[in-house]
């Protein structure tokens, strides 16, 4: 594929980028490429659309130093050389443990560092509709709230100058595979994607095919539509929570006013309490901790929770809830 081509997939992504205003013209774009079909599909589509958008594009890869990835970095470097695109490689100083969450953390940190160092405006990843459905199920089973169910979104601001974008969230994994096959892209078969010790792999390999066969062939589409609806709800809830927080928060005492909280519905009480705990504990509270503090709204003076973290408790004092050392 030495020159730009055009297909229904190109037209589809081109329209989606315009309709959702995902990536601005004349931007500097860094595309994260793992070597798999999704990221290769994204990279090739964006390179073919480059002239229409006046983008400056580069590709980046993070090497986890896993044994079965031996040769992968060189494989991607050759693709970039063949395609005439700049390539940035970040390598772990030592082998990262084969854990989903830990690997993802190091990978994103490395990619963001590259994007920041070389002044890219956008970091693009090849997450698809299939990934979004899997994330929805995964977080639902972990008991996540609306934030978790909408975690995989189209755009996320990383900092003032960098935005993370997932342009393929309307494409399925089957469609990216068909694109790679059609244009003979050199996909690297990741053996880790077949490891059932990873929860997300079991969802992808076992659970979703079962749900598609036994319940709903369009399960991925419907789950992602639900995520879109919830995302709009979440935007409103966050805006309203910010407004209400100012009404109930006592800046002088760093406390919440119980009388004002009583006027607010339970869903906003929980959100305000969560934000208050994050502010004071410097970590995300769990459901039980939030509920324990919500109960204090109707409790008498000097009522307190059990320990929140280490020696911290929440206590009612003079009709206000505050955080103090136990």
What's the helix and strand layout?
Elements: H1 8-20, E1 28-32, H2 37-53, E2 56-63, H3 72-83, E3 86-91, H4 100-117, E4 122-124, H5 129-141, H6 146-149, E5 155-157, E6 163-165, H7 173-182, H8 199-214, H9 219-248, E7 249-250, E8 255-257, H10 258-261, H11 266-281, H12 287-295, E9 312-317, E10 320-325
Parallel strand pairs: 1-2, 1-4, 2-3, 4-6
Antiparallel strand pairs: 5-6, 7-8, 8-10, 9-10
Summarize the structure.
With 326 residues, this protein is α/β, with parallel strands linked by helices. It has helices spanning 8-20, 37-53, 72-83, 100-117, 129-141, 146-149, 173-182, 199-214, 219-248, 258-261, 266-281, 287-295, and strands spanning 28-32, 56-63, 86-91, 122-124, 155-157, 163-165, 249-250, 255-257, 312-317, 320-325.
Helical fraction equals 40-55%
Q: Indicate the CATH topology of the largest domain.
A: Rossmann fold
How many extended strands? 10
Q: What value does the Rg take, in angstroms?
A: 23 Å
GO molecular function, one term: ATP binding
Pfam families: ATP_bind_3
Domain tRNA(Ile)-lysidine/2-thiocytidine synthase N-terminal: 29-204
EC number: 6.3.4.19
């Amino acid at each position: 594929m030495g020159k730009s081509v055009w297909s229904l997939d190109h037209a589809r992504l081109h329209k989606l980028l315009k309709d959702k205003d995902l990536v601005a013209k004349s931007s500097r774009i860094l595309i994260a490429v793992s070597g798999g079909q999704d990221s290769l599909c994204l990279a090739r589509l964006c390179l073919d659309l480059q002239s229409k958008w006046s983008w400056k594009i580069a590709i980046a890869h993070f090497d986890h130093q896993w044994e079965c990835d031996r040769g992968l970095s060189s494989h991607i470097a050759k693709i970039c050389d063949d395609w005439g695109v700049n390539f940035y490689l970040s390598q772990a100083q030592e082998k990262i443990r084969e854990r989903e969450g830990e690997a993802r953390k190091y990978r994103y940190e490395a990619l963001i560092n590259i994007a920041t160092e070389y002044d890219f405006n956008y970091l693009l990843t090849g997450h698809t509709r299939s990934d979004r459905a899997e994330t929805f199920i995964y977080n639902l089973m972990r008991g996540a709230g609306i934030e978790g169910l909408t975690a995989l979104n189209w755009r996320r601001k990383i900092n003032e100058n960098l935005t993370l974008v997932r342009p393929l969230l309307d494409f399925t994994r089957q469609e990216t595979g068909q694109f790679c096959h059609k244009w003979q892209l050199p996909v690297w078969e990741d053996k880790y994607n077949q490891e059932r010790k990873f929860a997300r792999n079991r969802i992808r390999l076992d659970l979703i095919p079962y749900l598609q066969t036994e319940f709903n062939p369009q399960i991925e589409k419907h789950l992602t539509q639900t995520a879109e609806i919830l995302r709009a709800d979440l935007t409103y809830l966050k805006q309203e929570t910010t407004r209400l927080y100012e009404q109930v928060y006592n800046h002088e005492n760093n406390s919440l006013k119980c009388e004002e909280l009583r006027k607010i519905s339970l869903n906003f009480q929980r959100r305000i309490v969560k934000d208050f705990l994050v502010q004071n504990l410097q970590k995300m509270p769990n459901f039980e901790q939030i509920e324990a503090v919500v109960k204090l709204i109707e409790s008498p003076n000097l009522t307190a929770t059990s320990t929140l973290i280490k020696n911290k408790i929440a206590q009612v004092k003079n009709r206000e809830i505050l955080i103090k050392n136990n």
